[in-house]
């Protein structure tokens, strides 16, 4: 057991030594940048238009859900008020109708707002083209300017980033340029990014 532990310590020490020795050479070749996708989506007019279209479609689904809920509430009130006066067969018939409407409403809500529901698909439908454009712009900047890695600050993994490494303004500028009929290529390089 001691021999295994000491062998593991040697392997760990050699690994750290290799990383330390090669680090200056790697650091010289490493070019890193980042974007803030939350800011891009907040400031880009195309995202705002997509959000409006998405909201219109969801509003229609919400209206239908509310109508179904009103039908259920009306039927429940009718059953509560007339139930004592109805025959057992008629009361059972009304209860079955109520249960069918509740099941229909639940299925409608699940189909639209559940996991993999149409609301989620609509959101993806409206935002995916913008996400794809952002990825294309970032890839063009990255490969054209020799970036080793470009991170997204919106996911919370960047604690600190030199503003000169922030490519967010360049991505926003390129999206706007493409929208106004500009050529869909990356913006020319500036000293490490916009400030």
TrEMBL record:
Leader peptide range in chain numbering: 1-27
Keywords: Coiled coil, Signal
Domain of life: Bacteria
Matches recorded under InterPro entries: Chaperone_Skp (IPR005632), Skp_dom_sf (IPR024930)
Keyword presence, RNA-binding: no
GO CC, alphabetical: cytosol
Pfam family, one: OmpH
One GO term of the biological process aspect: protein stabilization
Region feature Disordered, mapped onto this chain: 176-195
Keyword Nuclease: no
Coiled coil: 51-78
SMART domains (UniProt xref): OmpH
GO molecular function: unfolded protein binding
Family the entry assigns: Belongs to the Skp family.
Name of the molecule in the record: OmpH family outer membrane protein
Organism: Eiseniibacteriota bacterium
């Amino acid at each position: 057991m001691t021999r295994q532990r000491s062998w593991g310590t040697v392997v760990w020490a050699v690994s750290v030594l290799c990383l330390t020795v090669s680090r200056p050479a790697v650091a010289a070749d490493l070019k890193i940048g980042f974007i803030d996708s939350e800011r891009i989506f907040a400031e880009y007019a195309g995202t705002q238009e997509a959000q409006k279209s998405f909201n219109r479609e969801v509003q229609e689904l919400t209206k239908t859900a509310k109508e179904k809920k009103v039908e259920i509430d009306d039927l429940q009130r009718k059953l509560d008020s007339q139930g004592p006066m109805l025959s057992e067969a008629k009361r059972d018939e009304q209860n079955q109708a109520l249960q069918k409407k509740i099941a229909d409403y639940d299925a409608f809500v699940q189909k639209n707002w559940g996991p993999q529901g149409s609301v989620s698909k609509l959101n993806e439908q409206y935002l995916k083209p913008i996400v794809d454009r952002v990825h294309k712009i970032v890839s063009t900047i990255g490969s054209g300017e020799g970036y080793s890695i470009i991170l997204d600050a919106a996911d919370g993994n960047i604690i600190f980033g030199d503003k000169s490494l922030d490519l967010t303004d360049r991505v926003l500028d390129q999206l706007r340029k493409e929208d106004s009929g500009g050529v869909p290529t990356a913006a020319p390089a500036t000293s490490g990014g916009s400030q």
